[in-house]
Amino acid sequence: xRELSPQIRTSIIxxxxxxxxxxxxxxxxxxxxxxxxxxxxxxxxxxIKEKVxxxxxxxxxxxxxxxxxxxxxxxxxxxxPYYFDTSLIPVIENYFKLKPGYIKYVLKVNKNFSPFIxxxxxxxxxxxxxxxxxxxxxxxxxxDYSIDMERTYPAGIRGSHLFGYCKEISRKELEQKRExxxxxDFVGHSGLEKYYEEYLRxxxxxxxxxxxxxxxxxxxVNDGKDDIKPISGYxxxxxxxxDLQKLAEELLEGQSGAIVAIDPNNGEILSLVSKPxxxxxxxxxxxxxxxxxxxxxxxxxxxxxxxxxxxxxxxxCFKPVNAIAALNDSVIDExxxxxxxxxxxxxxxxxxxMGTHGGINVVHAIEKSCNTxxxxxxxxxxxxxxxxxxxxxxxxxxxxxxxHEEISGILPSVEYYNKIYGVNRWTKGYVVSLGVGQGxxxxxxxxMAVYVATIANGGTWYRPHAVRKLFNxxxxxxxxxxxxxxxxxxxxKEAIDLVREGMFLVVNGAGTATHVRIPxxxxxxxxxxxxxxxxxxxxxxxGFAPFDNPKIAIAVIVENAGFGGAVAAPxxxxxxxxxxxxxxxxxxxxxxxxx
Length: 595
Prior knowledge:
The protein is of the alpha+beta class. It has 21 helices and 23 strands.
């Protein structure tokens, strides 16, 4: 092999040397000139920690400005991924009694976020745990704590299903709302907390501090001038009367059932109670696993909102719908009478009545709750007319209350029976029991309260709502008033008035709720018994007062309590009396006689 001449070797070495210097020079130029900004930002991030400042969540007030739901400071364990030493995972999980693998899971879920943003690991730290963090902070690289807000309930009202509770955001929710939340954030999970989450949550603030190489704070950046203040969430004035709500909770304690009270003039919810319930303070920070197990294993299902999600046969409380359908469409008039001989025969079946009333008209049939009259009336009306008027009063559909936890109930129709039993595979015999509110008809207590409120005010159906207005407490105040949504039903005044007359006599005549009478206040109502194939019947009462100028309409159901007049009606009486005599004593609500 021929050797390269000295001149060629020198040329090659010179070329390689120049290439190396050119490459190094270009890279140096790239670093110093082109990528200066990039490396400056990285350097700054290495030296500055961005601390999240949680906003003040919106406060709940009652209709009279009593504080129902407020905030208190609490401590939260956080990890800053960039500075965190993963060898500390066993130490942290052991001391804070976290489930093994939890920290790795949280870090993985948040891997797409900036590694400089602190991740929430556990809420509700004790002072002992805070002291431990302070004592060992030199060795806990990337481990920190923050002061967050926890819910508190100063009025002594449980409000479990109405207020609702906050819970750590789920992975599914996080994927849908990454622009607002990070893993570990608490969000409204039920009740009003969930429905108005976007208003209540506010906006997070940021605090910038210098840190050393281990992530330990050294001091504020630019004397805190660059910090971003949090923006508090909107406060909410509820329509609830705190004292009425508290009394309703007490009266239903130990029972299973629901109470819904409404202002019939605008649909404002005065009280909404579902029992059994649960203690919201258990959800204020970290909910113990034992509490979750107890709530989920309780056969009485305390997490379930019976006021808006349980369906029951309405029993005799539904007779006014049957009556209004017939009166409004002139199927009958006030003089029409039907003979009650103790029951109603149809086909091979005899449907019993609770009494033998003789010839009886619609007003007295409501007063004495004559089954015979209403068995006959649904056949005179026809199934489709009965369904039409049931739908008109809001049955078989959601009311639209400002709670996500609501169901439609069941309002049978021709289409419904065709679907269940098949076309031409059912007869009128399936329909007869619907005339007295039994059978496959299913309603919620909320629907019943809205229905009786509509009768009370003369035929205007209002969408029920539990929040009156939202307003922010910040420098530039904004107020959002929740609109009153009402619709006048196509029902003649004469039809409503006759039904109201019958309901007046239920309490003030020879009806089934004479013990609901209140001195100085005229009450109208209707008792009902919901048949229960699994045990003792459920007790209903619906009513309103004062008769001539209604201020409150109410629905009460007590499960497995038997006859409605014996159990549910006295609860309604106590609430009506308290609200009108104690709460509205300065208003002109007391009357001595019916006009």
